[in-house]
Amino acid sequence: ETGVTQTPRHLVMGMTNKKSLKCEQHLGHNAMYWYKQSAKKPLELMFVYNFKEQTENNSVPSRFSPECPNSSHLFLHLHTLQPEDSALYLCASSPLSGQGQQETQYFGPGTRLLVL
Amino acid sequence: AQSVTQPDIHITVSEGASLELRCNYSYGATPYLFWYVQSPGQGLQLLLKYFSGDTLVQGIKGFEAEFKRSQSSFNLRKPSVHWSDAAEYFCAVANFGNEKLTFGTGTRLTIIP
After folding, report:
1. Residues whose CB falls within 8 Å of the CB of residue B1, separated by 6 or more in sequence, listed in order
2. Element at B21 (helix H, strand E)
């Protein structure tokens, strides 16, 4: 399998549930990202990981908890979500240049999340 | 702060007609510019990118874009659209070393026979 994969593709959860989204990249990249895509709004960057270290948390509520065990895998743990958190959650990865700067991002297909 | 404006929310084009999608950015230095396409239920696929050099950039699926610094624009073009081009198109800008990609709100493209 190549590229960036995400599981599950669709998820329905109640506000009291705990669930996790998984992202895996097969591109040999060292940076990974979580984005939120809501209707009528631009893509919102949530988290950035470079070499497994979190380098950006874009004021995301603590009910979203990322985890990056290695450069190929990224998780987003969800708990006590709200209905307004319903959205498409996209994972992306990119290589890092020799100077440690991020280059072109490649996206997964996303997880469509519905919070009831 | 950098920003991206895609002034057209929705565009309808006849199959075989030419296409131009507009993108304007606000950024102080030379930006890195991207166009992505998103088909329904799918993630974003990179069409093309501009980092430096020739201001006319060729991408996949017959798309091209031209960087015009004087107009702060990076418009996407295709000479003849196909029904399979129906999708949502996103323009994005990044600044060197800041590691943050800012997206526009997207333009939805509908193709009619």
Report:
1. none
2. strand B19-21
What's the rounded mean pLDDT across residues B77-86? 97
Beta-carbon contacts of residue A8 (< 8 Å; ≥ 6 apart)? A21, A111
Contact list in B for residue A109 (CB cut-off 8 A) is 41-43
Q: Which stretches of chain A drop beneath a pLDDT of 70?
A: 1-2, 97-102
Confidence of residue B96 (pLDDT cuts 50, 70, 90): low
Measure the CA dihedral A92/B45/B106/A103, to 10°: 50
Q: What would the pLDDT profile of A24-48 be if each residue is shown by its tens digit?
A: 999 999 899 999 999 878 899 999 9
Asked if B90 and A43 come within 8 Å (Cβ–Cβ), the reply is: yes
Q: Is B42 on the interface with A (CB under 8 A)?
A: yes
Put simply, the chain A residues between 86 and 105 with a CB less than 8 A from any chain B CB are 90, 92, 99, 101-102, 104-105
Of A48, A104, A109, the CB nearest to B43: A109
**Three-state DSSP class for A65?**
strand
| Distance from C-alpha of B24 to C-alpha of A25, rounded to nearest angstrom | 31
SS3 A4: strand
Q: What is the mean pLDDT of residues B51-74?
A: 93
